[in-house]
Amino acid sequence: MFTKIEPFCEESVREAAQILKNGGIAAIPTETVYGLAANALDENAVKSIFTAKGRPQDNPLIVHISNFEMIKPLVVDVPKLAQKLAERFWAGPLTMIFDKTDVIPGVTSGGLSTVAVRMPANDAARAVIEKCGFPLAAPSANLSGKPSPTSARHVFEDMNGKIPLIIDGGECTVGVESTVICFNGDKIHILRPGGVTAEMLSEFAEVEIDKAVETAPKQDERVISPGMKYKHYSPKADVWIVKLRAEKFVKFCESRKDENAWFLSRGDYGKGFINFGETAEIQARRLFRLLREADENNIETVYVEIPDKSGVGLAVYNRLIRAAGFKVVDE
Length: 331
Ligand code: TXA
Ligand code: MG
What we know:
Blueprint: E1 4-7, H1 10-21, E2 26-28, E3 35-39, H2 43-53, E4 62-64, H3 80-89, E5 94-99, E6 114-118, H4 123-132, E7 136-137, H5 152-159, E8 165-168, E9 179-184, E10 187-192, H6 198-201, E11 207-209, E12 238-242, H7 246-254, E13 261-265, E14 274-275, H8 280-296, E15 301-305, H9 313-323, E16 328-329
Parallel strand pairs: 1-8, 4-6, 5-9, 10-11, 12-15, 12-16, 13-14, 13-15
Antiparallel strand pairs: 2-3, 3-7, 4-7, 5-6, 9-10
Helix pairs in contact: 1-4, 8-9
The protein binds threonylcarbamoyladenylate (TXA) and magnesium ion.
């Protein structure tokens, strides 16, 4: 199959919608990462997503809507708290889990009785959903296990020959996937941190962070979000989080400068270092691209100065610790 990359415009939106209406799949930009979209209500279309990504069948997909009305047939009920969060954070990088209705096929929900719903803020994503008139299931448009794609070129690297169309909407502005939450009584339970932070959510209710966010799930441990148990975001390079800051980090890196390694620093540390970003927002935007570039440059090891875990930093840490397979260099 020939894979076209077309810029976001009326024509490419029409073409994507046509493909999706015919039960096909296409890649679309969102503000978080690029998504591989199919009609969320069409079992066979959704199955093609799993095939193209090589994704385990029990890992459920997020269902994307473009206006609030669209959620109604999909879920049993929208709790008051969820409604408030939707008013504040939709459209945007927040995914909420609801009890699903029969409208959502089992393949979309990975066999669960719940469904994850999000309303993306990206214009191209919204235009495609609007044109389709049905919700789109869309996981990140990478091969399963690889770093998520934050540009059309990244999608092309993983999906060339497997999908007919990628809409190019430029670099993703957030750079890490949406925050995924469920509700535990009156509490907000964060399953995956993202652009909508724990701090932002805590203005609405008590927030608890799933322990799988920072630590490795034990073998056979039951996890609420199936995506948490898989190895993730991994480049070929061996990634390490280095729990040393500033001068100590520099010293550590100098002792390893003869290795075929990249040293990602939280600022401009001069020759030999790659500036990963001074703020968590910048780090989030650069993370997946840098992991992919490390592989393009045949880098063996990537050492990363430990990010702050506040704000979007928790999302950066969560993706990094998985890319690192939970390996940390301690003092
Ligand atoms: O920003 C995003 O969310 C991107 C863009 C494309 O919208 N999508 C994305 O999808 O990251 P994906 O499939 O790569 O990640 C979905 C995550 C997985 O960890 C999955 O296990 C979890 O959401 N998830 C989906 N449905 C769920 C459910 N019903 N219960 C618990 N976790 C769920
Ligand atoms: Mg993903």
